[in-house]
Amino acid sequence: MRGRSGAVTFDLKLNTMQREETASDSSRLEVYPPVHRLGVVGRWVRARLQTEILRGTPVLVRIQGLRSPWRNAVMQASSFLGEEEFYMLLVALVVWIVDAKLGRLMVQLMGICFYVTGFLKNTLCLPRPPSPPVTPLQRCQDWGLPSHHAVLNTNIPWFLWFYLDHHFSLSLPTKISVFVGIGLWSVSVMFSRMYLGVHSPADILTGGVVGCILLAGWLRAYERVDDYLSSSPSLLSLLGIVCIVVLLLSLHPDPYPVTIVFAETVCMTGVAVGFVVGQVLLTPPTGGRGLLEEAGQYSSLLTAVWCGLLRFLVGLVALVMLKALAERGAKILLQAVAHVAGVTTVCIKRKSEVSSERVHYSAKFVALNESKTGSEWNQNKLTWVWDRGPINLDIPVKFTSYTCMGVVAVAICPALFSLINI
């Protein structure tokens, strides 16, 4: 009863705070969630989910009371283990050093996770936990539910576990150690997001459920996917895959106001497409091999370690340089094509129209039942869809350059390693 009373007291305080904010400040953040297009059902689903987000606020406040400088540092580090930057470094390590097939499959799974999570985030447009009373320790500029970190850390660590268990002959103590390590990795990342005040328990739980569904499907499909791509399908089939991805991106919601969600989805799916293109066009049927798969050719462990370190450093430098060249080349090429077609273009980097403070729930966070009108709404549609005025090439350039980045990682870098004999 005491816990229930505490929750009721918090709800009363939150309602009072909302009324005071509404009375004192007429400015508000207007959001049009695409889910509202479903009418009463869509509005009910979103309202229900938002209620569950707010219901977890007392839990976050109690966790917030545990903060200390050293715990903050640990949780920041744990959160980084779920960031895209960490996963890209991990993928590079796996593809070039450990097992090329595993690395390719991880990237393809990440592309699926990013697309589905971004689609749900931009469809629902649900806020992050209310601040105050929650004090976030990180700045976020996108919607809250489902948590990207929860989806990724339900998928990537546990896919890694299933793959190692299925394809490697691990001893029982090693299996137990890997299982415990992956479990700690996955759970610590999810808990860190609540500790840092940027996700509610509902965000994490929903992300975990979505992640489990995606992982279950991927575990049934990944062998067939890799076998098909390694069988050197025709160029027409490859073009069909790319067209399907572009079509899916064109269906991805990009609601008012614009956040970074869609741009991040484009970048990650671009990398995944690049891995597919590189595997099909520029690698042998085996799809390339990691250093550990070729361990027999090294005379000593020290030589293998040295070559592994060189592979990682040379590969990262090549990735950064060639990605920059690809970005510049894509911009020039697309501008030239647009000029020939008589289309006026600009290339302005898309930024979030929502500040990190405003994505957290407050009485100023208002979900509209109707979209912005005409020109206002069109300014926020996909940048390659025909619209009045100049077309922003930022998204097409991102997709092209990150696709090239994937090709470099899975095909060009292994060829470079072979050329310099590392």
From TrEMBL:
Residues 103-219 form the Phosphatidic acid phosphatase type 2/haloperoxidase domain. It holds the Pfam family PAP2. Coiled coil: none annotated. One of its GO terms (cellular component) is endoplasmic reticulum membrane. The chain crosses the membrane at residues 176-198, 204-222, 234-252, 258-282, 303-326, 399-420. GO terms for molecular function: sphingosine-1-phosphate phosphatase activity. The keyword Transmembrane applies. Keywords: Membrane, Transmembrane, Transmembrane helix. The keyword Hydrolase does not apply. Gene3D superfamilies: Phosphatidic acid phosphatase type 2/haloperoxidase. InterPro entries: PAP2/HPO (IPR000326), PAP2/HPO_sf (IPR036938). GO terms for biological process: sphingosine metabolic process. This is Lipid phosphate phosphatase delta. The lineage of its organism: Eukaryota, Metazoa, Porifera, Demospongiae, Heteroscleromorpha.
